[in-house]
Amino acid sequence: MPATLTNASIRFEKRTLSNGLTVVAEIIPTAASAACGFYVRTGARDEDTRVMGVSHFLEHMMFKGTDTMSAEDLNRAFDDLGATNNAYTSAEITCFYAHVLPERLLQTIDLLGRMMRPALRVADFDTEKGVILEEIAMYKDNPFWVLYEASLEKHYGAHGMGHRVLGTDQTITALARDQMKAYFDARYSADNTIVALAGNVDLDAAIAQLESTCGAWQSTRPSRIRPAPTPVGGELRLTDAKVARGYLLALAQGPAIQDERKYAASLLGQVLGAADNSRLHWSLVETGIAAEAVAAFDAHDGCGDYYFFASADPDRLDEVWDTIRKEIAALGDSLTEEDLERLRNKALTGATVGGERPADRMHRLGRLYTYLGQYQPLEEELEKLNRVTLNDLRAVLRDFPLEPRTVGRLTPA
After folding, report:
1. Does the pLDDT value for residue 244 go beyond 80?
2. How far apart are CA 138 and CA 182, in angstroms?
């Protein structure tokens, strides 16, 4: 039976402020909470290579205060509102968000909006640079992260999709405060930002608050100038005296987030490499060949990729890679209706749980609108997953063969 999810009590609305700031909302009058997120269409892929990491560094600087508020003032204000707030930076999006009680939403919108215009004080910049460098050092102790970043660089070559979100020791050390300010002025504009709201929201009042707080923001007409990447790829071998296991990570092309074939690609990734009850789990983990083995699909702006990851005894990496390639080769013929039914049921569970939380709805709404510029109800997205057939799965395999362009290994020195 196909999974279904309907909720007639949810209303979508879109408004555009006079300066071009776009506001999208899923209004749920019966919700017990409300969420707000500012989504900026910028990330590591939009950076000049010389300032790689500036988006993530700038995310940190947002929490250092404004011209009228210190970092302590800002943190205390969020605590006083009882907000669950945070931020994140990816290759393509930087987001700042908070989840609160409905009666605190307007104050939260105001606080987030003020936070989005940071002071960028030189003293704060110099101090936070040390924090970023420590964060980079911390991730160097994570074998997956080391191999993943190096493999992306190999896979995408000079394209911005290969940039490291945190940057490198060299780019962060060399970065100047005025370079950050120039990047901020160009990218953090009204017409490059989406404000997403979800839950028990008084939209008219929220719009009035946004006009008051953000109405003076300028529009700069920024663009994502880099075209869709053509993967370069190749083999990559790293060694590290600190690791005792062997790690393997491979990358293959997939459909972009704008491509409707992404639904079939997502299901393929789960069939092949979900954390449990997948082809790779049964052939590698349950047999004792590998300690972990996963695969997944990730859609991006103009491109997409599958990744395959496993860790094992270093002497068995060749066996691991042979097994992964055999599972990829057999995938099309091994697909069954039972695979689809299981995945549909998981999708319904995930959608139902997420649909109950305004914060989850806000994140989904903001992310999709930032990427696609249009609204897609959660129920419609689930229905598109329901309509995926075995022929669709095999078709996307033909269009995007799971032939890794990049294969990276990390082994003990």
Report:
1. yes
2. 28
Are 303 and 228 a contacting pair, CB within 8 Å?
yes
More confident residue, 227 or 361: 361
Residue 321 confidence (pLDDT) above 80:
yes
Contact 373, 387 (CB under 8 A): no
Instruction: Give the tokens for residue 117.
Output: 């215009």
* DSSP per-residue letters across 282-309: IIIITTTS-SEEEEEEEE-SS-EEEEEE
Would you put residue 224 in left (φ > 0), alpha (ψ -120 to 50) or beta?
beta
Angle between helices 317-334 and 262-273 (to 10 degrees): 130
3 state DSSP class of 195: strand
Among 30, 250, 31, smallest CA distance to 154 is for 250
Q: How many CA atoms lie within 13 A of 358 on its CB side?
A: 30
Q: Is the pLDDT of residue 346 over 90?
A: no
Task: State the angle between helix axes of 177-187 and 54-62 in degrees (0 to 180), rounded to the nearest 10.
Answer: 90
Residues whose CB is less than 8 angstroms from the CB of residue 305 and which lie 6 or more positions away in sequence, other chains included: 155, 231, 251, 252, 253, 254, 297, 298
